[in-house]
Amino acid sequence: MPALGADMRDGMLTEWLVAEGDHVNKGDSIAVIETNKGAIEMESYHTGTISRLLVQPMSTLPVGSILANIDLDAETDAGTISETPAPEQPSPQRQDKPQAAPAPAPDEIKAASARAHAITPLASPVVRAMARQQQLNLQGITGSGPFGAILLRDLNKAHQTQQGSDAETPAISPTTRTTDADANRRNQAAMRAAIGAAMEKSKREIPHYYLSHDVDLSAAQQWLSDQNAGRDPEDRLLLPALLIKTVATLLPHFPTLNGFYQNGSFEQAQAIHIGMVISLREGGLMVPAIHHADQLSLDDTMLALRDISLRSRTGRLRSSELTDATITMTNIGDRGCDSVFGVIYPPQVAILGFGRLRQSPQVKNNQIEICDTLTASLSADHRVSDGIIGAKFLYALSQQLQQPEQL
To answer: How many helices (H) and strands (E) does the chain have?
Structure first.
């Protein structure tokens, strides 16, 4: 069972995407894991053949539990799929790993699944969200998945049936609404507790320092307006993509902000994977990474941002997107706050924050001008860098954003 976040303690294996005897490559999706943040596609950490699936779907297990065996290619011995990947970059979940737990017996799995099904239908967060949108009662749907789990195809069939039924028949009973509300409250409580535990650990163990700098974005806003002229709405470039591209361009010159502090020392990351804080509509956060952000064009960065935002809220993310970010960015957008100072996500060593875009007076050439202004902030680990490094980074960020055509 992989650790898909510093706040994850256990997860439910909801679906195998492979069978015994299947050959998989490193990075292939092999299973779906449900956490309190949604359904995540688990990727294979090795290339080889799946020799044995040890755990049945709908089993909840702690991080570190063994799920399956894989016979590795290239004349290597049989390996085990556990929480420890072999990525190019160190994973934020390497520290404080629990020991691998034995897989539960088949009878225990069936009993637990039966108890869970008696309380509420088995369905992933994606299925539940879709059911709410379509006003479908999960209690009345027969699932075709393992142990009767309701799949998306079952929803489509039920939706077609509902459209042909009496329009006056309520799709969701008050009891079902109450049950769903209680489940949402429990999920929210679990997510808040997990986020709180991770951030408490960060504030307790990491000596943060904080810096901020007001950036003149007048030139950047005009440049974006020119670039978007004539584009369809879905193809337009937004300010967050420009911020990501700028940060990714500068990080190679500030390596002590991009990496991990583990086992008493700093390890510089060899790639730039920028984790983006995504606010979920029902509350809580996810932080998927845009991989190799420094190698993407601005248009590709915009596409990647749209993709992970959509999949964070309505679809599946891949396990690597939640485990290998080398630095984090949080963007408050237009939510009325001028600045935001983030808490570092361990074992990363820095997080960048961007407040709302606003108009403010600035002095230029001894004249007062009204400019589009954005406050950029940096929270960094004092064990790895000093304030002068952070100040230089924010100044370079400001200068680069005033010359967006160079990106």
So the answer is: 9, 20
- Tokens read off for 201: 């650990």
CA angle 343, 344, 350 (to 5 degrees): 125
Instruction: Give the type of residue at 270.
Output: Q
Average the pLDDT over each of 161-165, 378-382, 403-407 and give the range with the smallest value.
161-165
Q: Give the position of tokens 């990363």.
A: 348
- Exposed / middle / buried, residue 265 (Cβ in 10 Å: 0-12, 13-18, 19+): exposed
Encoded tokens for 85: 């990947």
pTM value is 0.69
Which pLDDT value is given to residue 165?
A: 54
CA-to-CA distance for 272 and 74, rounded, in angstroms? 30
Pairing of strands 78-81, 68-72: antiparallel
Instruction: Say which residue the tokens 């990647």 belong to.
Output: 304
Please state the rounded mean pLDDT for residues 34-52. Answer: 86
Q: What is the pLDDT of residue 252?
A: 97
Q: What's the confidence (pLDDT) of residue 117?
A: 42
CB-based contact 57:41 (threshold 8 Å)? no
Query: Residue type at 154?
Result: D
HSE (side-chain half, CA atoms, 13 Å) at 178: 3
Report the distance separating Cα 316 and Cα 17, nearest Å.
13
3-class secondary structure, 371: strand
| pLDDT for the residue 100 | 38
Terminal Cα-to-Cα distance of the chain (whole angstroms) = 40
* Predicted confidence (pLDDT) at residue 260 exceeds the cutoff of 90: yes
| Percent of all residues in the chain with a pLDDT value above 70, rounded to a whole number | 74
The token duo for 343 is 């808490």
Q: How far apart are CA 281 and CA 395, in angstroms?
A: 34
Q: At 243, which amino acid appears?
A: L
Residue 96 CA, chain-centre distance (Å), reads: 20
Structure tokens at 296: 């993407």
Q: Which domains does the chain have, with CATH numbers?
A: 10-104 (2.40.50.100), 108-178 (4.10.320.10), 208-406 (3.30.559.10)
Most confident of 16-30, 70-84, 105-119, 304-318: 16-30
Q: How crowded is the C-beta side of 211, counted as CA atoms within 13 Å?
A: 19
Contact between 238 and 302 under an 8 Å Cβ cutoff? The reply is: yes
The two three-digit tokens of residue 16, written as one number: 């195998």
Cα 279 from Cα 295, distance rounded (Å)? 26
Contact between residue 63 and residue 83 where contact means Cβ atoms under 8 Å apart:
yes
